[in-house]
Specification:
This protein has 125 residues and is mainly beta. The chain contains no helices and 11 strands. The radius of gyration is 13 Å and the shape is globular. It starts with a strand and ends with a strand.
């Protein structure tokens, strides 16, 4: 499956952005989807994940209550709505796909076989 992330940009502290990740090439509804991010000089970290049908959702503690992951299987797209953005949210955000036979979405980097190219989010203070 090919993944194309978009929606990044420059935003002030407290602002909002919505990231999108469009998938093509395979049956999107067979894949759990996730967002990871990588800040300069840091390792890639898990942000959010959603199961095939959207019934199971997971977030890293630092974004709970501020970020919302969702998916539209008819549009082959997963979204990350980000609100109350902080400078520490500055990173390149990557979407990833993991073929799943169950309603489970991993929070581990190594579980995901397919990755998008990343989109940069910069939050100014």
């Amino acid at each position: 499956v090919q993944l194309q992330a978009s929606g990044g940009g420059l935003v002030q502290t407290g602002g909002s952005l919505r990231l999108s990740c469009a998938a093509s090439g395979r049956t999107f509804s067979n894949y759990a989807m996730s967002w990871f991010r990588q800040a300069p000089g840091k390792e890639r970290e898990f942000v959010a994940a959603i199961s095939r049908s959207g019934n199971s959702i997971y977030y890293v503690d630092s974004v709970k209550g501020r970020f919302t992951i969702s998916r539209d299987n008819a549009k082959n797209t997963v979204y990350l709505q980000m609100s109350s953005l902080q400078p520490e949210d500055t990173a390149v955000y990557y979407c990833a796909a993991d073929r799943q036979g169950t309603e489970y979405a991993s929070t581990y980097y190594s579980s995901y076989e397919y990755w998008g190219q990343g989109t940069l989010v910069t939050v100014s203070s």
